[in-house]
Amino acid sequence: MFTGVSEQDQERLKDIINQLFTVNYLVKELEREKYFLARRYREQLTQLFQFLGWDVVFDDRHECIFVASREAIHRRSLSREESVWLLVLCLIYQEKRQELSLSEYPITSIYEIRSKYETFHLPFVNKTRLQELVRLFSRYKLMESLDTDLYSDECRFRLFHTLQYAVDTDRVERLYDKIIRYDTGAEGGLLDEMDEETPAD
Q: Which end of the chain lies in a sparser environment, N or C, as judged by fewer CB atoms within 10 Å?
């Protein structure tokens, strides 16, 4: 499958493959060298992942690569707070990307994220949890902090196009509807259902 590939490129491809198995995404903006190497060996990587029962998407339009297990064995079960955070980011991403050119990434801030929580009458996360969420979603190539002070309302984040693959559009719309309908303080309400319905790729 990798016949004719130099030993150096084989080692670099191993690193790329392991990363894709771990976090599912590769973003040109963050890792240009890896991205271009993966594109150079697109055919071989596609064959490998398909042989293993995984789908691979080379999204040239949004300059990212996404892999997913057909049996969904790669899916991470999100906590309620993680589910809400992901939904809020997806909603902000969808709202903002309509106003931008394809080459631009939507930029949001703590103020905007907090305001979206308030719109849905959801309690915002505490400082410790905020750090954990930013760290987790940065690791999965979904967002990137542009400022160091996470506790400032002006702290900005770049949202990556990989958010399109984290949760499908239909699920985002269903969860959005639940936020509108449910009393979030009620037992068995929105947050309990989000535990069951929001696996992330």
A: N
- Longest Cα–Cα distance of the chain, Å, equals 61
Nearest 5°: phi and psi at 44?
-65, -40
Q: Which helix (H) or strand (E) holds 15?
A: helix 7-23
Is the pLDDT reported for residue 13 higher than 90?
A: yes
Q: Buried b vs exposed e over 78-110: b needs ≥16 C-beta within 10 Å?
A: beebbbbbbbbbbbbbbebbeeeeeeebbebbb
Closest C-alpha to 86, from 61, 117, 115, 127: 117
Asked: is 77-196 a CATH 1.10.10 domain? The reply is yes
For residues 14 and 148, give the distance between their C-alpha atoms in angstroms, rounded to a whole number.
32
Question: pTM for the whole thing?
Answer: 0.81
Residue (of 59, 34, 69) closest to 201 by Cα position: 69
Q: Is pLDDT at 26 greater than 50 in this prediction?
A: yes
Q: Where are the domains of the chain?
A: 7-69, 77-196
Query: What distance in Å separates the CA atoms of residue 61 and residue 199, rounded to the nearest whole number?
Result: 25
Helix, coil or strand: residue 195 = helix
Which pair of tokens denotes residue 189? 């309400």
> What is the full DSSP assignment across 80-143?
HHHHHHHHHHHHHHHHHHTTS-TTPPPEEEHHHHHHHHHHTT-PPP-HHHHHHHHHHHHHTTSE
